[in-house]
Specification:
Elements (H helix, E strand, L loop, with lengths): L1 H11 L12 H7 L4 E5 L2 E5 L10 H19 L2 E7 L2 E6 L1 H14 L40 E3 L2 E3 L3 H12 L1
Antiparallel strand pairs: 1-2, 3-4, 5-6
Helix pairs in contact: 3-4
């Protein structure tokens, strides 16, 4: 943060804020030193930690915080693909490697503010052998759709009906 402060001081040069304006821009500058109040019914909660909803830097800061987790998955799992958009991840690979990556997310994620929601997690196999169904490999509450899943808005499936249904929802 010190580097940012020095850069901003250099950028702003000799400009002054709030000069001759009662509670003008200077009040805005000093408000950044206080935690915001989030009003809830008859009370409020002090927003003293984390990135607040609507903060334009929120997505960037969240991505920066998650980057070490994504690096850890890359370094420890042999995956075909793992793609992320904020807290939504798609992991493609051998079942054992996918299970290992989910374990990394479950262990490392909470320290970074990411909690794996098993009930929103899905596993899909275009072809299935017995090893993928091995008991204990994946949490029992993980969804296992039979006909396909959506990936980046498109259908991933061998079932023509599922593909047509996803496509028709996009068209209509």
């Amino acid at each position: 943060m010190k580097g940012v402060r020095k850069d901003m001081a250099k950028y702003l040069n000799d400009f002054q804020f709030g000069v001759a304006i009662s509670s003008g821009a200077e009040a805005d500058l000093h408000s950044a030193n206080r935690a915001a109040r989030l009003y809830l019914r008859d009370g409020h909660i002090m927003a003293a930690t984390g990135v607040q909803q609507g903060d334009p830097l929120g997505p960037l800061l969240f991505a920066l915080v998650l980057h070490p987790l994504i690096d850890k998955i890359r370094d420890n799992c042999k995956l075909i693909l793992h793609a992320w958009y904020l807290d939504d991840g798609t992991i493609i690979g051998d079942s054992k490697e996918v299970a290992k990556s989910l374990d990394i997310i479950r262990e490392t994620g909470p320290g970074l503010g990411l909690h794996l929601n098993i009930r929103k997690t899905e596993i899909f196999w275009p072809s299935c052998d017995g090893s993928k169904l091995r008991k204990g490999l994946f949490h029992s509450d993980i969804g296992r759709p039979l006909f396909g899943v959506k990936f980046l808005g498109g259908a991933v499936s061998r079932d023509r009906g599922f593909i047509e249904e996803v496509a028709m929802k996009r068209v209509v």
